[in-house]
Amino acid sequence: MMLHINFKSGVPVYLQIVQQVKAAAAAGTLRPGEALPSVRALAEELRINRNTAARAYAELESEGVVENRHGAGCYLRAQTASPLRHAVRSERLASELDAVIVQAHHLQIPDAELLSLLRERLAAFRGRQSGNDRTP
């Protein structure tokens, strides 16, 4: 798993790790049951403090994305059921969508174009997802 940290982005490093692990899981590049690097290995690879790596893993675990098996490491959890209630998940997504809407407004993108772009990105995501499900 290759993570890239942008120290100039203004986004906390631990959140960048969380976002990238979630994206890798959603895209299928990280499969359920697959081990993540140890906190020490991740910190050394990214040249960050171990506490930052541990905080990212703790956040991922609290969101139900990974599970920490004591003595065995951290593994991507099967996405069969979210530990978060539907309302909480919707609220988290709504705040992200609000930011996109504000950005679209500032870029003067009409609603129809924004919806079209969202549909296009969803289709691309579904295409990548189904492409990763194929077995060679």
Q: What does this protein look like?
A:
- The chain is mainly alpha-helical and 136 residues long.
- It contains five helices and two strands.
- A two-stranded antiparallel ribbon has the order 1-2.
- The chain is globular and about 50 Å long.
CATH topology (level 3) name of the largest domain:
Arc Repressor Mutant, subunit A
Which CATH top level class of the largest domain fits?
A: Mainly Alpha
For the record, the CATH architecture of the largest domain stands as: Orthogonal Bundle
The fraction of residues assigned to DSSP E strands is: 5-15%
Adjacency order of strands in the biggest sheet: 1-2
The CATH homologous superfamily of the largest domain is named Winged helix-like DNA-binding domain superfamily/Winged helix DNA-binding domain
Secondary structural class: mainly alpha
User: What would you call the shape?
Assistant: globular
Calculate the mean pLDDT score and round it.
86
How many beta-strand elements? 2
Helix amount, in percent? 55-70%
* Measured distance between first and last alpha carbons: 20 Å
Radius of gyration: 17 Å
Overall number of domains: 2
